[in-house]
Amino acid sequence: MVSSTNFGFLAAFLSGAVHVVLGHPLGSAAPDCDRSVMAEAADAYIAAQTAGNVGMLQHAVGDSWEYEENNKKKEAHEGLLSKALKVDHRRTNFDLVACATYTELIAADPANPFVIGTQIRHGVDGRVTLIDTIASTTNSWLFDAKKTLEYVLQEEWDPIPKGKRDSRDMIKAAGDAYLDMWSSATAANAVPWGTPCTRLEESAYTGKGRPDDSCKAGIPSNHSQAPNTRRRYVIDEAMGSVSIFCVWEHMMMAADSHEFRLEGGKLRYVHTMTECGGQRCTL
Ligand SMILES: *[C@@H]1O[C@H](CO)[C@@H](O)[C@H](O)[C@H]1NC(C)=O
């Protein structure tokens, strides 16, 4: 039996709850990521890398921000950011839930070639807390920056129209299933293979420009290999993309970046960068 007293309590409780919800419309699980602040930080990162001057990030970073390069924590001024690069291409994707960006960057200059993936994470105040970068160069797996640039520029990464976007969970699950193929016999069945689909593994391109291009050619047949671990994600529903950084254990514990783009629920593009601790990558 519900007495009027209890009912009154319930009403007061509910109005209190409503007030709390209105006070924090997105709740603590969904921070209010500021896209323009994140875009400015990604631009500052590109400017700093172009100049080889970490100081140009000063206004964007928090007091105790961290820097990681090829899966190792470093002082930023001792890393690649202190080397000026001629940037030929960059594309930044936005994760508006995790407050993070992923930037793909190519410097094809033969004197200083790099293909770089960078995840930048922001704190609640919008300031950068972590710059996490996978920087492939000479000796990295299938490295040829000039070719990578050529292929990347052929692809279309237009934003996906609002009604046609895949869910965050689905995009993430597709990327995870793909990375699980080395260590799980059932993972390949969980990848939403698309047609056409093309893989750009550093400079090796599976695409032939045909409508039946497939990403299945040469996928792992040995599912008992070491797993791809320590995964870090940046998910952009508008791009249909997920960037996953990991440890590519079966290839010299390499630092690895895989980026996936889905279109209409199906895998369309895969980009990879794999750096083996300064050594020549071999399987
Ligand atoms: C599969 O990979 C594991 C781990 O590297 C290796 O021990 C095994 O020999 C491989 N199996 C085949 C059939 O190549």
From TrEMBL:
Keywords: Signal. Pfam families: DUF8021. Residues 1-23 form the signal peptide. InterPro entries: DUF8021 (IPR058334). Residues 164-274 form the DUF8021 domain. The keyword NAD does not apply. The keyword Calcium does not apply. Residues 204-230 are annotated as: Disordered. This is DUF8021 domain-containing protein.
